[in-house]
Write a structure and sequence with these properties.
Number of strands: 11
CATH class of the largest domain: Alpha Beta
Order of helices and strands: EHEEHHHHHHHEHEHEHEHEHEHEEHH
Number of domains: 2
Strand content: 15-25%
Mean pLDDT: 85
Helix content: 40-55%
CATH superfamily of the largest domain: P-loop containing nucleotide triphosphate hydrolases
Largest sheet: 8 strands, mixed
Bound molecules: guanosine-5'-triphosphate, magnesium ion
Number of helices: 16
CATH topology of the largest domain: Rossmann fold
Shape: elongated
CATH architecture of the largest domain: 3-Layer(aba) Sandwich
Structural class: alpha/beta
Low-confidence stretches: 361-365
Strand order of the largest sheet: 6-5-7-4-8-9-10-11
Distance between the termini: 65 Å
Oligomer: single chain
């Protein structure tokens, strides 16, 4: 008796195919259901294999029907012999190359996370339950970026007072100038208050930028002056406030700044922590812990992206403390080297991906 094996996605489809080829003389001898694929790079698919024979009573009909070619049979056989990974022993699994692919995939993920300087906590979140398919790079970049929040709210509807905080030389004043120009360009009436009366030349720097953009600026030295400055700028849509770079160890300066900041109403104020992308996560955490003792830090501004090898340091920091990113800067040029933070901007700075992120960005924007 001649046996024929047919494989399809379901039992019904296999039977239909068998009937189409061999007619009613066909009898099903046995069926076997199994899955194929399901490795790191292929999706699991269910298959059904039926083994059939032609009934003797109608055997003569077989001659009239087109018979399956030997090439078809070889193809069916090959497909039918694809093992079900879940039913294999460890040794058999090794034969399929699946663990090797998994290992290779895991290695690639580690390589990319290392290259981008992703710290432990964020790394754990990214790899937790991560089962990349064919699109490992796309899925991984999405996992990295989606761990971080973007402060769209502050970008679109900034509170009246935007206070720039951060360590010395982190780019507070330069970024303030860039943001002042940005908001002025979109029609907002902007003013500047400078709380830095300590560093020599600090206010000169602020004033030079303010004058260049025809924005009023006021230097204040004590708490009374803050009240007067706020009053003088009461009609402005937006008041950007520059502060002195602060060492956590300088107690008198810390107390001074704390007193000055207490005069800005919390509901009208955003506190923007400005950190260079080159800074270590631990140092960012130290700054954040310090400022959160007296204000509620609202969002992060990342500066000097142009000088940094990787963005993992601030991504890890932002993830750990749940701080959304509002702006990024990538150069000394005022006002041009400023970008509103966005998923796409951050993706652009991810390193180690073979896929072309730039063309993807081009298509999306
Ligand atoms: N490469 C690069 N340099 C930047 C960027 N932003 C600021 N800078 C430079 O960093 C230096 C310090 O910038 P400031 O804006 O003065 O920094 P600050 O935080 O106000 O400094 P202090 O007021 O002294 O605490 C300046 O030379 C800036 O031009 C940036 O995005 N990329
Ligand atoms: Mg400054």
């Amino acid at each position: 008796m001649e046996y024929i094996t047919i494989v399809s996605d379901t039992y019904e489809k296999a039977l239909e195919e068998a009937r189409r080829r061999y007619g009613d003389a066909l009898r099903v001898h046995s069926r076997r259901e199994y899955t194929v694929g399901g490795g790191l790079f292929t999706r699991k698919r269910r298959k059904c294999e039926i083994t059939c024979y032609l009934s003797n009573a109608r055997a003569e009909e077989k001659e009239k029907r087109p018979s399956v070619t030997s090439q078809d049979l070889a193809e069916f056989e090959k497909e039918a012999q694809t093992p079900d990974p879940s039913s294999l022993t460890e040794a058999e699994r090794l034969d399929t190359g699946q663990p090797a692919r998994q290992l290779e995939s895991r290695k690639r993920v580690d390589e990319i996370l290392d290259l981008n300087g992703i710290g432990m906590k964020l790394r754990e979140r990214i790899v937790d339950g991560f089962e990349p398919g064919d699109d490992l790079e796309l899925a991984l970049s999405d996992r990295i970026i989606s761990s971080i929040a973007i402060d769209h709210e502050n970008q679109a509807h900034p509170r009246k007072y935007q206070i720039f905080l951060g360590p010395t030389g982190s780019g507070k004043t330069t970024t303030l100038a860039k943001i002042a120009s940005l908001y002025k360009t979109v029609g907002k009436d902007v003013g500047i208050i400078c709380l830095d009366s300590y560093r020599v030349g600090a206010y000169d720097q602020v004033k030079a930028f303010a004058d260049a953009f025809s924005i009023p600026s006021i230097l204040v030295e004590d708490e009374d002056a803050v009240i007067l400055a706020k009053d003088s700028l009461r009609d402005k849509d937006l008041v950007l406030v520059d502060t002195m770079g602060l060492s956590p160890n300088d107690i008198p300066l810390n107390l001074k700044l704390r007193g000055l900041l207490s005069l800005f109403e919390e509901q009208d104020t955003s506190y923007l922590l400005t950190c260079p992308a080159t800074m270590k996560t631990q140092d960012m955490l130290k700054q954040w812990r310090h400022y959160t003792q007296f204000v509620k830090v609202t969002s992060l501004i990342v500066t000097k992206l142009d000088e940094s090898q990787s963005i993992g340091s601030f991504l890890t920091f932002a993830y750990e403390v749940g701080l959304p990113v509002a702006f990024c800067t990538n150069g000394q040029g005022v006002p041009d080297d400023l970008k509103k933070a966005s998923t796409l901007v951050l993706m652009e700075y991810l390193d180690g991906f073979d896929m072309e992120i730039r063309p993807i960005i081009g298509q999306l924007t």
